[in-house]
Design brief:
The complex is a heterotetramer, with one copy of chain A, one copy of chain B and two copies of chain C.
Chain A (H helix, E strand, L loop, with lengths): L5 H6 L14 H11 L5 H10 L2 H4 L4 H9 L7 E3 L6 E6 L2 E9 L1 H6 L1 H18 L3 E11 L5 H21 L3 E8 L8 E11 L14 E6 L11 H8 L15 H16 L5 E4 L4 H12 L3 E5 L12 H6 L5 E6 L1 H13 L4 E8 L4 E5 L2 E6 L1 H5 L15 H6 L11 H13 L7 H4 L10 E3 L6 E4 L7 E7 L2 H6 L1 H18 L3 E10 L6 H21 L3 E7 L3 E2 L2 E2 L3 E10 L16 E5 L10 H7 L11 H16 L5 E4 L4 H13 L3 E3 L7 H6 L6 E5 L4 H11 L3 E7 L3 E4 L3 E4 H16 L1
Parallel strand pairs in A: 4-5, 9-12, 17-18, 24-27
Antiparallel strand pairs in A: 1-2, 2-3, 3-6, 4-6, 7-10, 7-11, 8-10, 9-11, 12-13, 14-15, 15-16, 16-21, 17-21, 19-20, 22-25, 22-26, 23-25, 24-26, 27-28
Chain B lengths: L3 E6 L6 H11 L2 E6 L10 E4 L19 H11 L4 E4 L1 H8 L6 E3 L7 E9 L15 E8 L3 E3 L2 H9 L3 E5 L11 E5 L5 E4 L18 H13 L1
Helix pairs in contact in B: 1-5
Chain C lengths: L1 E9 L6 H13 L4 E14 L5 H15 L5 E7 L9 H7 L3
Antiparallel strand pairs in C: 1-2, 1-3
The chains are: A alpha+beta, B alpha/beta, C alpha+beta.
Bound molecules: adenosine-5'-diphosphate and magnesium ion.
């Protein structure tokens, strides 16, 4: 086996390299040669190919993502913005919060348990790398049709993996989503969100500075995980006798990650870390090049010092390995001994693999020979940028013209009642406890609200009761009908969910799940969703702090629905005043906030009853969303409501059923003047919520709404053990509960 | 002088801070104990908290049992020191043979997290004297391997000697034999259970405050001693 | 009645956190000289009727599609020599190394 | 270098929910004639030096105190005939029933 050193590359300029197999385009390869002034070595090629991949370089998406920064609203709260491992938000009292959502879609399809588990592991390390203690996770999920055999394989595995990893890490799961739609068959979406808390002064960044500082790799040993593509290099070009195929599957070790968390937090506490980066996609290639690129100097790494799980790995494979549970830190020489001591305390393997150098090159050595000598920025931050063509798809006009408002509506009260039952028992609207009961929501002892609630809420400070609330939402059906509006509706819903619990929305993270960017129609959806989200964030004053793009979620020509998943973080100064969603107290009055219109495009009703998708999604009114949030927050602060639940998929009846079942109290509803019972129950107009108002507060509450110009209608009263829609039907709570709760267990056992 | 209650942290312990908080809220002084340290630092009682010690990879609690701190805990427990094992801590106590039986995979094979109703069948142990016999309490339950099993004659003996301390009500969540949620040793100083009383000590974060009684029980007993 | 055993082990290149946890604990327990530990699953299937080629082929298929996750695991099917029911600890001790 | 295998199975009187789950799924998958399934663990220990009586006795003790919980599990220790590394799925197929 000949080692492809820099020297060797210089001497053999014409040697053929498998750049195409590694996914590089001809002009990209030419650019690498130009940057280096010679052909790349195998190791360099491996680094460039993976760092310039769509996943790492955002080459198709970044021209559109730019808007999140350019249009970002002025916000005093943003301490660290887009570009770092995760954004950091000031939540007051000296605390900062960092949060981010990421996708692990493809790995979760191949191996649901490990794919989903390592999705949690990866996002947790991102949060840890910012200097924060991870305090909670969430899991927005999308699967194919609920009764499709592959869903029976993917869902239980993914849920067990999320639980298996998150529970073992000791992070409460405080919310998420479970959505079924045939468009996700073969392309399930497993997104994972983590939130962490730190003091302002603890913020850490991924950058290597200070000549002579040590580069320390710590955590798990490096094995052959997730390096499928790069083994081409090892097997075909340089070492034809090597193992032909490496596993693309990464296996997680949550115990190792738990040790990594505790160890890293102790390293932070003793101020031993100058710069830090987690190892995720692209492994050491990414960590070393990003650390060096963001820092002032260069970096020299002795690759053969990396502790291996599999001694047969080639240097290229070591650079590419995506073995989990590893971190890379930059440490002053005087602090290195103490650093290693703390790692030893936690049984974490730590190795000095190199140091920060004077120059501006990233140099990697293997058995004394130089195999990489590159400008790190060219690898990490100056990858290719594509301006991919995009065009509004031709089919959209017909889809939008196919108005859901024209679908047959229930003919009488009996049919209306029947459709309500079908709705609340449909997989998307049914109770998700089969999933969420597999997640520990109590660990750490700071969970104030968790599923099923509008948002998860975590106490940050036990003395002052400062807390944060988080919700994630995304409706691919709306986005399919109109990606600009769909992205805004996703934001609006998450924002509303946070406000419903009494917290003030502050900042946004997003995971943009789309089909192939090489399809101009998909690219248009992507561009529209970005534009919509950026515009809405500006209006609502909530900057995007970070996120993730997942493209190529498609099988053949068929892409998933465009699915922007939006996470909103809010702050609440006193978690004891949280507003839960349960309707409990008989006699309290139910008020509906907002305007109800004839809006059924993309609705749950149109899907469940007519298997239909067409028309336009509900109208977006961001000023109304902001006003609604102010009302909900003020009502929480002044103790005017005992419960609140936002309206989204399934409309009013779905929300009332959920709140009544949670609180164990029934309701009598009266259809307001000017609305048909059907529209009242099933419309999905945005900007609405229901609240339970104690009688003693009604006047004050109504006055507040009137003063602020918020439409409000008293629609009923909490009473008995059934939901009665006056003049239409009565549904006993136990019948509703049975139908709402049996669906997922019946499907997944 | 406050009463010192040690809470052991094994690698992979998760509910250790929660147990410390519960001790504090009950009026005791929590003392963090480290798995590598044999010294119990003059604590008056010990809590083995929930979590996944050593990843729970071999069997839950199997590796933790051999840690240095457990040498002293086992010795002191035999000498009468109150020891409470919660969830993973219960598993460690069984693996250490301080309590009989074993905890196996839930019969439905899923991890389950829910609020669980229990009956206190023995209100005479070091950790339950603040409850009344037959009292019903609700505390969180969260585990993947919580099915209590033991030989028939061991189960009969536990029943006969009144050593079943807690039983599941309203549905057995994991297939435990005879609905057993927690047991005690003959002396009544060592108690283990799968549910998590330390997560039911504040109305803000737990379903109830029913779990506080564990900690007030042991504090009273120690002050009286 | 015959017993067919299916052994399922993680592929050698796949991380085995369980085996590693056991191995790391060994020195503390005073065991030296064990250089690697892998932990896998063992299925014991009691089969009615003769275990002929066809039956074994079916079980092989079962192992491949259901008992093992061949993305990360290898498996092996074999007819168990011992046909007695699983030994109690006592008889195991007798059969053990002593 | 030799391999010692420790098989650990739940005692027959202990409920085996994993084995039962497999068994319950069999008819749905179209498998008949399998009357019982038990799922246990298989440990593969790579031992340095000769696996003599003394070494086996040590491993037996390790199994009894650590690898198995004899309250609920039985175990068996044996030296593995095959000394090659775990087979890939391909070679297993070859070794299988066909
Ligand atoms: N995969 C999941 N993980 C955790 N919580 C979930 C998951 N799916 C749904 N939930 C929770 O169930 C509740 C109901 O979900 P959903 O109806 O989607 O909420 P909403 O419509 O308010 O966004 C919420 O509290 C949500 O966080
Ligand atoms: Mg909601």
């Amino acid at each position: 086996m000949t080692l492809d050193t820099v020297k060797h590359a210089g001497e053999t300029p014409e040697a053929g390299l498998p750049w195409a197999e590694l996914g590089l385009k001809e002009d990209e390869y030419a650019r690498i040669r130009e940057i280096l002034g010679r052909r790349p070595t195998g190791a360099e090629l491996a680094m460039y190919s993976v760092m310039w991949s769509e996943h790492c370089s955002y080459k198709s998406s970044k021209v559109h993502l730019k808007q999140f920064g350019e249009k970002a609203p002025a916000s005093d709260a943003l301490l660290v913005g887009i570009g770092e491992n995760a954004g950091v938000v000031d939540v007051g009292q000296g605390y900062a919060v960092t949060f981010k959502v990421e996708s692990h879609n493809h790995p979760s399809y191949i191996e649901p348990y490990q794919g989903a588990a390592t999705g949690i592991g990866g996002i947790v390390r991102d949060i840890l790398a910012m200097g924060a203690r991870p305090v909670a996770v969430m899991d927005p999920l999308r699967f194919g049709a609920a009764d499709h055999p592959d869903t029976r394989r993917v869902l239980p595995g993914a849920v067990a993996g999320i639980g298996g990893y998150g529970n073992c890490l000791g992070l409460p799961n405080i919310g998420g989503e479970v959505v079924f739609d045939p468009c996700y068959q073969g392309n399930p979406l497993v997104n994972a969100l983590c939130v962490g808390v730190m003091k302002h002064e603890d913020i850490h960044l991924a950058k290597a500075s200070g000549t002579g500082n040590k580069v320390i790799l710590y955590g798990a040993r490096t094995g052959g995980d997730g390096i499928g593509g790069v083994s081409v290099l090892a097997s075909e070009t340089f070492d034809s006798t090597g193992p032909a195929k490496r596993p693309a599957v990464q296996v997680g070790d949550p115990f190792q990650e738990k040790l990594l968390i505790e160890c890293t937090l102790e390293l932070f506490a003793e101020d031993l870390v100058t710069g830090i980066q987690d190892l995720g996609g692209a492994g050491l290639s990414c960590a070393t090049s990003e650390l060096a690129s963001a820092g002032s100097g260069g970096m020299r790494v002795e690759l053969d010092t990396v502790p291996l799980r599999d001694s047969s790995l080639s240097p290229e494979e070591i650079l590419m390995s995506e073995s989990q549970e590893r971190m890379c830190a930059i440490v002053e020489p005087a602090k290195a001994a103490r650093f290693l001591e703390i790692c030893e305390k936690w049984d974490v393997i730590a190795t000095v693999i190199g140091e920060v150098t004077e120059g501006d090159r990233l140099e990697i050595y293997w058995q004394g020979e130089q195999i990489v000598d590159v400008p790190p920025r060219s690898v990490a931050h100056e990858g290719p940028t594509y301006h991919r063509p995009y065009a509004r798809p031709g089919w959209l006009d017909a889809l939008q013209a196919d108005d859901a408002g024209a679908l047959p509506r229930p003919a009488d009260s009996a049919e209306l009642r029947d459709q309500v039952l079908r709705l609340v028992g449909s997989p998307n609207q049914a109770a998700k406890s089969w999933v969420t009961d597999q997640y520990d929501k109590y660990v750490i002892g700071n969970t104030v609200l968790a599923q099923p609630e509008d948002s998860g809420m975590i106490r940050i400070d036990e003395e002052t009761n400062l807390g944060v609330a988080l919700a994630t939402d995304g409706n691919g059906r709306y986005a399919k009908l109109d990606p600009y509006a769909g992205a805004q509706l996703a934001l609006a819903e998450a924002y509303r969910n946070v406000a419903a619990t009494g917290a003030r929305p502050l900042a946004v993270t997003d995971c943009l799940n789309f089909g192939s960017p090489e399809d101009p129609g998909v690219m248009w959806q992507f561009a529209e969703a970005c534009r919509g989200l950026a515009d809405a964030c500006r209006t609502l004053g909530t900057p995007v702090t970070g996120g993730n793009v997942s493209l190529y979620n498609q099988t053949g020509e068929t892409a998933i629905h465009p699915t922007p998943v939006v996470g909103v973080l809010g702050v609440i100064d006193d978690v004891t005043r949280r507003t839960p969603m349960a309707f409990r107290e008989e006699g309290q009055l139910i008020h509906l906030l907002g305007d109800t219109r004839e809006e059924f495009g993309g609705s749950a009703w149109s899907q469940v009853v007519h298997d239909h998708l067409g028309g336009l999604p509900p109208a977006v009114d961001l000023e109304r969303e902001r006003l609604l949030a102010e009302i909900l927050i003020a009502a929480s602060r002044d103790g005017m409501v005992d419960a609140a639940h936002d309206l989204s998929d399934g409309g009013l009846i779905q929300a009332v059923v959920e709140s009544c079942l949670k609180g164990g109290t029934g309701a009598r509803l009266i259809v307001p003047d000017g609305l048909t019972p059907f529209t009242f129950l099933f419309s999905e107009s945005a900007g609405r919520a229901v609240v339970a108002v104690p009688r003693s507060e009604e006047v004050r509450f109504n006055d507040m709404c009137a003063a602020r110009g918020m439409p409000v209608a008293r629609i009923g009263v909490l009473d008995g053990d059934a939901i009665e829609v006056q003049g239409e039907f009565t549904l006993p709570l136990n019948e509703l509960r049975e139908i709402h709760e049996r669906t997922l267990p019946a499907l997944f056992g | 002088m406050t009463t010192r209650i040690g809470v052991v942290t094994f690698p992979g312990s998760l509910d250790d801070r929660d147990a410390q908080r519960a001790v504090r809220l009950a009026g005791g002084e929590p003392v963090a104990l480290w798995h590598r340290d044999k010294n119990l630092h003059q604590v008056d009682a010990v809590v083995l908290p929930g979590g996944f010690s050593y990843g729970d990879y071999l069997r839950c609690g199997a590796i933790a049992r051999f840690s240095p701190v457990m040498e002293t805990v086992i010795e002191q427990a035999r000498a009468g020191m109150p020891v409470l094992g919660i969830c993973n801590g219960f598993q460690v106590l069984c693996e250490s043979h301080l309590l009989p039986g074993a905890l196996t995979r839930n019969d439905h094979l899923h991890f389950v997290c829910r609020d669980q109703k229990l009956r206190v069948d023995n209100a005479d142990t070091a950790w339950t004297s603040d409850y009344s016999p037959g009292q019903e309490i609700t505390v969180p339950l969260k585990n993947g391997e919580g099915g209590y099993v033991a030989a028939e004659r061991t189960l009969d003996a536990l029943e006969a000697e009144g050593r079943v301390v807690f039983r599941y009500l309203d549905g057995n969540p994991n297939g435990s034999r005879r609905d057993i949620a927690g047991i005690t040793n003959e002396a009544g100083n060592v108690v283990g259970l799968m549910p998590h009383p330390e997560h039911a000590v504040e109305t803000l974060t737990g379903p109830t405050t029913d779990g506080l009684g564990f900690f007030t029980s042991v504090l009273k007993k120690l002050v009286a001693a | 009645m015959a017993r067919v055993v299916v052994d399922v082990m993680l592929k050698p290149e796949i991380l085995d956190p369980q085996g590693q946890a056991v191995q790391r604990a060994l020195p503390r327990l005073g065991y030296e000289g064990i250089t690697d530990v892998r932990q896998g699953k063992r299925f014991e299937l009691e089969v009615e009727g003769p275990v002929d080629e066809a039956a074994l082929a079916r079980i092989h298929e079962l192992a491949e599609t259901f008992l093992a996750n061949t993305v990360i695991e290898d498996f092996r099917v074999r007819v168990e020599e011992v046909t007695a029911p699983v030994e109690s600890t006592e008889s195991v001790t007798a059969e053990g190394a002593r």
